[in-house]
């Protein structure tokens, strides 16, 4: 039996109606869509993590290396244990909460913040081992499960359109159309988007990869040809006067100042305040991951008739291990990325897709900014394409039944506008028992669903009332 046959047998290609070529393309697609995290995560965390005697540039490079390592570990667990095509990396919302709220606004030492991340990860491992996380996810009301995919689609679309400069923040109308015609990035991104959609419509295999890489190459050519100012289309690695490879930060592989720093964070901890920080990390990570697994599982055809993802405890364990390892190494909560939908849409169905992503992240260690060579506006073309395709999931909702349509609609609406998968799920879960009671169908609501709704209410009180800042 050859190497290819061994991979096919181990990952079950025939059982999942896939092949090695499809899985590799899917893995490359997912990698290109989430590669931006290698630059964005260090940028966010370096604003909060300061190590005595270590320059800010060196800290940035350490966090980049740690980001790649934590992501790769989580995806290797996803590949070989869960056998699912999901990519994982430090989550954007949670790293911002760590840097700007926990460390910045609340003044908690960054080591203590990492201690909270490790604590959360260990709790997740224990809860996953006993099946508690799977039980909670199965409590999600059916309309919420079926709405998550569409909500994630809109969430992906707005993230992608913003990165492409097409949708921007606006004080008068909250969001507005950006100055597309005068913005070289937007013009190039729009061209790349429509070329990608056209290729997909024609059934071209690997259309999303072609779109991302093609847009990146065209941006580089326009820059080198002098059509636009250096730095506009390729990013900060292009310096005035042309392309300068020396401008790339070189990898700092000595990450010892970061590794294990969470241990120091447990010293002189204020118990109540620390517990609230762990609680916040826990809630957002739990429901972001749950929503992503269910939503992406829906477009991949992984869900059963009840809208559940079989053996969901296995991908949940990958998330839990990734979070724990990440906290130990020196980065924030690792979560399942919604960008995984891009690879699944390209046909990824097994852990081979996750393995490809993990290998590409490890290869990026050789030259830390390798993954960042794909500019965000190009990589996020994939998010818009997949967002469009995920809207079809809305047909699974029973729109004629208000006890289904209202929770589903709130899940879909809140997710992109609150910029959070977890908040969208929360809106649907809280609404479900309310409308069931209003229609005289309270018997349909399980005790666990009431408790879950109550837990979300408590979370929103903690998160939005100022209790967290008062407790520190």
Short description:
The protein has 472 residues and is mainly α.
Low-confidence stretches: 235-248
Tell me how many strands there are: 6
Number of domains: 1
Backbone shape: globular
Instruction: Report strand order across the widest sheet.
Output: 1-6
Structural class category? mainly alpha
Strand content: under 5%
Count, helices:
21
| H/E topology pattern | HHHHEHHHHEEHHEEHHHEHHHHHHHH
The major sheet is characterized as: 2 strands, antiparallel
Distance between the termini: 60 Å
The average pLDDT score comes to 87
Helix percent band:
55-70%
CA radius of gyration: 22 Å
Structural commentary:
The longest helix is centred in the middle third of the chain and has 29 residues, at 271-299. Strand 2 and strand 3 (174-177) form a beta hairpin. The chain starts with a helix and ends with a helix. Residues 235-248 have low confidence and may be disordered. 63% of the residues lie in helices and 4% in strands. The chain has helices at 3-11, 20-34, 37-45, 56-82, 92-105, 110-129, 132-138, 142-163, 184-201, 207-224, 262-265, 271-299, 313-329, 340-345, 351-363, 376-379, 381-390, 402-417, 421-438, 447-464, 467-471, and strands at residues 88-90, 167-170, 174-177, 238-239, 242-243, 334-336. The chain has a two-stranded antiparallel sheet. With 472 residues, the chain is mostly helical. Helix 6 (110-129) crosses helix 12 (271-299), helix 8 (142-163) packs antiparallel against helix 19 and helix 9 packs across helix 17. It has one domain. Keywords: Cell membrane, Membrane, Transmembrane, Transmembrane helix, Transport. It is found in: Cell membrane. InterPro entries: Azg-like (IPR045018), Azg-like_bact_archaea (IPR026033), NCS2 (IPR006043).
